[in-house]
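I am writing to request your help with a piece of structural work I have in hand. Here, with my thanks, is the record as I have it:
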Amino acid sequence: MTNPRSAASPPVPAVRRQSRIVHGVELTDDYAWLRAENWREVLRDPDLLPTEIKAHIEAENAWCDTLMAPTKALQRDLIEEMRGRIKEDDSEPPQPDGPFLYYSRYRRGGEHPLICRKPRPDRGDKAGREQVMLDCDALAEGKEFFDLGDAEHSPDHRLLAWSADEAGSELFLIRIRDLATGKDLPDAIADTSGEMIWAADSSAFVYVALDDDHRPTRVLRHRLGTPQSEDELLYEETDPGLFADIDQTQSRRFLLISSSDHETSEVSLVDLSDQAGKPKLIAPRLAGRQYSVEHHGDELLILTNADGAEDFKVVRAPLSDPSPSNWIDLVPHKRGRLILSHICLAGRLIRLEREEGLPRIVVRDIESGTESNIAFDEEAYGLGVDAGYEFDTDTLRFIYASMARPAETYDYDLASGKRTLVKRQEVPSGHDPEAYVVRRIFATAKDGARIPVSLLHRRDLKLDGSAPCLLYGYGSYGAAMSASFRTRPLSLVDRGFVYAIAHIRGGTDKGWGWYLDGKRQNKPNSFTDFIAAGEMLAAEGFTSRGRIVAEGGSAGGMLMGAVANLAPELFAGIIAEVPFVDVLNTILDESLPLTPMEWPEWGDPIRDEAAFRTILSYSPYDNVKAQAYPPILATGGLADPRVTYWEPAKWVARLRATMTGGGPIMLHTNMDAGHAGAAGRFDSLKETALAYAFAITAAGGGWNTEGEPVSSS
């Protein structure tokens, strides 16, 4: 059993060695017992966690609390600062749809949103009386965890379909609210992904059901007033490596049913006006081919990497026969210009793309082919599109922000090109963008690749190598890290930190090839890129070696584990949030919810010995060494279905048992949440405050041999 020892020392879990031979290699695991045999039940009800495992996790939390106790005042200050930058009664700009304007807002002091609407001033009611359709604060009252999944009003505006997760396990229950009475109908659809798409006549909706292994595999149509057991199956994905998903075209004419992994996709259409409509396949799955679909008139406009279009192109196809043989290039492929997404409004194709690491929006007149761009002249910034509800409109909404400049929401007149500022993010405690410097610089990888690094620091900071640095990274699944405005890191920056984002390989920050150079056999490039970014920041005087705190979560937490093994002396500390660190054991286990879908990203170590040996070479848990490690804070979520709680628990145990010095190593598990941590907008500040207090302490000298911080100010 676990020996909690004393409050002055970390818990020591029992060693129960398990061994197996895979591809001729003996794998040993002293802490496999921390994975509960009833883990599926624990996802649904965390109270079912076996007593011995629960005792160990709670002992780890107590040890973390003991080490971080001297920073409690600092954590309170951080929470107060971060909360002071949040507009408590914030509201998003309303989006028009028919007779109403729909939006969400927060009440002062509220943790969760209010889903609202009011009459459209140009459609009758000038008073604009607000209706709160869903009060999520009230729904969350008395619950340890509450997360709103989706809220979609029906096309006739009479009903609201909404979903919520009350455990953190991402199992969402869908309910239907009558907007005239404010009461929910008897319909209750359990174990869903949380999304729903309404039929055109508002009599039914489509949703995705999760199977017993937590995989989204079945797409069903629910008719209002009928039991869930009678729901009509529209599609079932039988390949465990692909997940089902739903969406709809901007025209709202078609439901889109997609089945995909990280490199292959397949899409079918269902006419939402046909009560008995069946899926119509556009193009059968072909390994490595990806595509997404929009509708315009009698055509489909398809974003795809077909025919070697590595950075994607847009093709047009007749709605009557959209098979690949009829695909005709509309926006041809251009290497280095990655098309991220596309939407159709009446007469126009809008695409979001990235070139040289910077995003832009391109508006194309479908008939004439003329194009105009929306871009900004800054070294680093973020840009996004909010498509809204309407199709026949001359207004496009977009959001712009930089690392120093709060988000600005604009309505763009597609006919005139005029931009109208709709909202500027407010920072109630005050914020002067001119007090900060935003830079985009480049590190050189060991193979010569140029790695973009976005950074933020105060304008009055002395860049002589003395500043601490928080270096953030991810580098997986093709996800690009946006250089947009975040209020929370300002608490570090205002304390003299340099805040940096390393746009390493494994993301698509420099195109699809940048992603391919950081996946499967190329995965180690992500780790060495991150280390190169840290070394460059030190060499250029932004910080120094041993003053850098590294941060990453989920697959970025795997990055943290890898760089801790490879270059521990570079870092003052490492924050690994819900870290995917037990990579080899997880990807060898087909019973886990995400494993088969992960093989295209990491390789299949079961059937491919080369993939096995590649993963074995970097899997953080399997490469813990007898060396000194910097202080490490790992976090987990007990109900997390993506990175299961035992991954950080096992990693922390092996680190402590193997390391020869350094540390301390801490683990904090949220017993009431999952992958994303606390769901409330203020509750989540506590987790950030813990991480930032750790970063400030680690960069300020760390902890002495008695576990006392050398500096926590």
Observations:
- The chain is about 20% helix and 35% strand.
